[in-house]
Amino acid sequence: MHRSTQQTLSLPPFTPAVTWLLAINTALFFTMQLMGMSSSESVREMYRWFGLIPSAVLHGKVWQIVTYSVLHGGFSHWFFNMLALWMFGPSIEGARGSRYFLELFMAGVVGGALFTIGLAYSGILGNPDIPTVGASAGIYAVLMAFGLFFPENEIIMIPLPIQVKAKYFVAILIVVTLVFSLQESNGVAQIAHLGGLMFGFLFVKFVPARGLGFKLSESYFVVRNFFHRWQRRRASKKFQVYMRKHNQDPKDLFDEYGNYRPPDEKDKKNGGSKGGWVN
Known about the structure:
Blueprint: E1 6-7, H1 16-38, H2 40-50, H3 54-58, H4 64-67, H5 75-96, H6 98-122, H7 136-149, E2 154-156, E3 163-165, H8 166-183, H9 188-206, H10 212-245
Parallel strand pairs: 1-2
Antiparallel strand pairs: 2-3
């Protein structure tokens, strides 16, 4: 049973991962603004190199599936993205930790990029030569997670004096995003948002609470230990074959506890100790 609480503009905390993302996006936004004052061509060049252009990604600029998320098209685009990140991000980070939150955010960013590229080349929506920028896909993944983790929390629909539960807010968000995607001339930007929602849902449902990085590290140690055990079994078999070829019994060199026992000391009892032969 979920307790209903109210999510308001009451100055959420600046948690580590949220602060880090806010700082990077804000620093790059103002850097781009300063660049635009001196040369608009330099800004366009930044979009060409670091915005998400599906055709460029398929020609080798694979970094764009991440870097597009730290560029924004204007003040309102940057401001409302950062406001949403600050409003909803700390709750997720506080519940699951910084690593989980960053992985969730990046799952939305990369998922939104892949979704955009796929649709741009499918002929359904989008143009593979038009750039997409903004952190919205990652933020929509965070919004999806918020709706799943805190479905009964009430959110004030500013500027409307209406309160709605988080689970209904996310449902409305999906419908609105889909409608705007179909109405846009290219459909790319809003489709990236929809990709963020979808990958945010998949991340919450299938990634462990400690995050994907923990799961991968855990799997690595499982594989490593299995390999070491295989190596020991293999070495043991080789040793047995070697001993048989030389007409020797392994028990002549090792006691029942696995301790080495020189051949000339094999009858030594170590004073009756159960620890085997010692020097």
